[in-house]
Amino acid sequence: MKLNRTDSPITGRERVKINENWVMIQDYLNNIIGKISDEAFQEVVNNAKLNWLPSFVDTYEDIATMYPNPEEGDTTMARHDSADYPTDPNDKREAGTVWRFDGTEWQPIQQIDISDFNREFDELNQRMDDFQTDLTAEVDKTFNVRDASSLTSINDTNLKAGTYRIDSTLTTDNPDLKAELPQFDNDTGNLIVMPTIDQTAANQRWISITTGSIYERMSINATDFGEWMRMDNYQRIELTTGTDILTLPPGRYYLANPVNGPVENSSAWYNVDITKYSNNEHRQFLVTRNFDGFVWYGTIHTNNQFKGWQRLDNQPKWKNLTLINGWTTFGGRPPQYSKIGNFVYLRGALSSGVKNEPFAILPDEATPPMPIIASSLSVGSGSSSAPINRLTVYNNGEITISFDFGPEDMGWGIDSVVYSVE
């Protein structure tokens, strides 16, 4: 700032210069004061700014670990004393100290009584830990092996969900339990109990450790099960040539030259379908010779008496199924059923329906006394590894296919589904 100089006795002109000097001095001082005030105000704001970080720290020493790159104003609080607190009378590293980063280091700015907060916080953490422990235990019970040592019966639709390891020692000591397992496979295996969607009952799966075979049975209602059905990936089980088919448990089989078959000493291959009434010894056999399609049926009645084979020589009369829930005929093969004697046959292909919803409802004459599980093979997908999915015929007549949709050009076949209505 350059001021006017007074070089001669004060005249009117000199007085004007002096006044101008005072004006310039006043303006300069005002600018300095304004600048200093703004800087001082900003400094006060910066010093007062609190940016609370997401979580408190356990002790002061944990600040550097949890917040290694702090910014000015970042603020947190220590929930507990430091391990070596106090080291001197001015040590602020105690529980409840609020710490603020001033741009260079963490400074203590306030002390709070945190005892109530810590108590509530610890109780909340304990409740969360207890919940996690209980949840883990329930998951373990469902997916891990349960203790089956006290198991006396599996004919209980309210049996807790989970996997039960049942061995020959357990079944030897409990013959009634052994009788409830799938026939001829009741040695050592895992019983998997799966609750129904509405939690009113449970379905069961038996996996034999000895043979690797798989059986399933569904709950008919809240107290009763249907028959055991051999599944093994929903494909027919190929048996050793010469197996006695009258000794087989319920299931779907494929073999040559069956003992006690409809044609003695036959080298042909046969498809054998066996069903059984729930909780009794009655069994039904349906045998189809593979090369010509001839079909025989027979039954085992009370006291294990086989009633002989009867050949089904009459041609089936096929009736169209009325498709529902958006299902349509696939490949020009309308879904149909035929009833010959006490047996019902299905054939045809379908696609494009509502996933996992019934595609048709059978009339009373073709309705099974209990749910029937069979397989449905995808057709028309062009894949060499077409998926196989479960087809279920319910005792209310509904027929469903459980699957995830594949390509748009895929259909689902229902051929070779055969069951008894007795």
Mean pLDDT: 78
Low-confidence stretches: 382-386
The biggest sheet, with number of strands, parallel, antiparallel or mixed sense and barrel status, is: 7 strands, mixed
Separation of the first and last Cα atoms: 117 Å
Strand content: 25-35%
What structural category do the secondary elements indicate?
alpha+beta
Number of domains: 5
Descriptive report:
- With 422 residues, this protein is of the alpha+beta class.
- The protein has 5 domains: 1-48; 51-112, no CATH class; 116-143; 162-311, no CATH class; 319-420, Sandwich (Immunoglobulin-like), CATH 2.60.40.
- The chain contains 5 helices and 28 strands.
- It has helices at residues 12-48, 63-66, 115-143, 168-173, 175-180, and strands at residues 51-52, 74-77, 97-101, 106-111, 145-146, 162-166, 189-195, 202-208, 214-217, 229-230, 237-238, 251-256, 269-276, 283-289, 295-301, 305-306, 310-311, 319-320, 328-329, 336-340, 343-347, 349-351, 360-361, 372-379, 388-393, 398-402, 411-413, 417-420.
- The strands form 5 sheets. Strands 11, 12, 13, 14, 15, 16 and 17 form a 7-stranded mixed β-sheet that branches. A 7-stranded antiparallel β-sheet has the order 19-22-27-24-25-26-23, with no helix packed on it.
- The protein is elongated and about 145 Å long.
- Residues 382-386 have low confidence and may be disordered.
In brief, what are we looking at here?
The chain is of the alpha+beta class. The protein has helices at residues 12-48, 63-66, 115-143, 168-173, 175-180, and strands at 51-52, 74-77, 97-101, 106-111, 145-146, 162-166, 189-195, 202-208, 214-217, 229-230, 237-238, 251-256, 269-276, 283-289, 295-301, 305-306, 310-311, 319-320, 328-329, 336-340, 343-347, 349-351, 360-361, 372-379, 388-393, 398-402, 411-413, 417-420.
